[in-house]
Fold FAD dependent oxidoreductase domain-containing protein.
Amino acid sequence: MLSSSEQATSSVLIVGSGVFGLGTAHALATRDEFRHTKITVLERVDFPAPDGSSIDSSRIIRPDYADGAYTSFMAEAHKYWRGDFGADGRYTEAGLCIVTDEGDGAGKGEASDYMLKAMENVKSRLGLKVGRREDRGQVEPLVSAADISRVMATMEGDCGTKGYVNWTSGWADAEAGVRHMRKLVERTERVDFKTSEVRRLEFGDGKIESVELTSGEHLKADLVVLATGAWTPKLVDLRGVCSASGHVLAYLDLSEDEQDRLGRNPTLLCENSGMFIIQPRGRQLKVARHGYGYANPTVIPHPERPDSGETITVSLPRTKMDDENLNIPPEGDRACRAFLKKSIPYLADRPWTHTRICWYTDTPTGNWLIDYHPAYSNLFLATGGSGHGYKFLPVIGDRIADVMLGQDGDALGAELRQKWRWPVQKHKSDHVWTDDWRGGKKGMILDVELGRSSSLSSNGVR
Ligand SMILES: Cc1cc2nc3c(=O)[nH]c(=O)nc-3n(C[C@H](O)[C@H](O)[C@H](O)COP(=O)(O)OP(=O)(O)OC[C@H]3O[C@@H](n4cnc5c(N)ncnc54)[C@H](O)[C@@H]3O)c2cc1C
């Protein structure tokens, strides 16, 4: 752990410039404890990484969590989204309608449980007023399909059977938010940005000796921070700790009129299928799934013993940067199409303009991994986003810096720090199929799903 004397002379190398990397860079560049620290951020591709998990048209910004610590943490982040950070269209407070759907069987009890706990948390922790929007209510229980249809009126479909709407939730233009954070970091004039890919870390006796780039260059730093998202298991052995899981996104074009109509709805999130549709932006609608995702098992040399000949199998991202023809598997395509058809019937046959597999860094519990590596004293991990890290972009860096310094900050910080620790016990299998709440099926392998017949697939792109 950094001590005060080390802080004065230390250099910090942050690898990755998504939410966790930029957030960390901003906190270090603005906190007094790091005023003498040389800070460098490395990113493998020109910023912003098009296949990074932080870069997309939209991300949901919600305090609606079954785990109240994240509800309270979101209350901190929300102040920023509602202020300058969310200005210029970066944040829209359009509401979030969370539903369960009896027709969608799997995991119903668990989904409903998550939803009820989330509603209780926003009421009790944030003091939101219960009631209809027209009566100045902020959170409204929806007890029937008709209630949900009323809230999701312009979708004109069958959106769910029970749920609630939180009118204080919203969504962010994800890429714009990350670009804004990068500008804030640049403005400090404290951070050196380099476009370089880390090939490997050079592990010495209990510490990282240096970082080798694909250019062959070696960089040394007193502290190396891995904020490399779903790619992290390539650089350090995270079997049973973190795994990349691929999630489906399908986009379609709207007319101006459709944009206007659908732009009046809150985001729709179905807890038992994991399917969701965020308000459209720029005449583009996205259908997506917060599920268990696909594993992409890949054999790699053991990252900590590359010369030993030993290999390990870990799930790593495969993106359009690896294969420009990569689209979502037929089962994911069908799931997105079915949800679109059911909830917005008048768009049922609209073809996708493109699809994408976007990669979560999953942990067994869904809590992030923000901690020092137990075996290497100058290696710090800021990853494990588990599909819900984006919304904390304005505030995550300060909490990461607190953990680096061994500080709690406050009672919430102490609680979060415990959740984000290197796990005492690893997941039972090398690949982490998270026990966090998700919709859909567990255990899907990307290549198996891509190889299945697409004859039943929708009229989406292939
Ligand atoms: C489909 C999808 C939907 C989501 N929806 C939401 C949502 O609605 N709300 C929400 O709050 N969160 C959401 N999330 C989660 C959120 O986006 C992530 O938790 C967050 O963006 C993770 O940020 P990161 O910095 O860990 O990863 P990334 O943004 O992936 O950043 C990692 C960076 O490291 C770089 N890198 C990797 N390896 C190397 C290397 N060897 N050398 C140099 N650079 C490297 C990568 O290029 C990348 O830019 C969603 C995620 C996905 C995929």
About this structure: The chain has a mean pLDDT of 94. The two ends are 49 Å apart (CA to CA). The domain at 244-257+283-364+435-462 is CATH 3.30.9.10 (D-Amino Acid Oxidase; Chain A, domain 2). The pocket of flavin-adenine dinucleotide is lined by residues 15-21, 42-45, 49, 52-54, 59-60, 197-198, 227-231, 247, 249, 288, 358-361, 383, 385, 387-391 (CB under 6 Å).
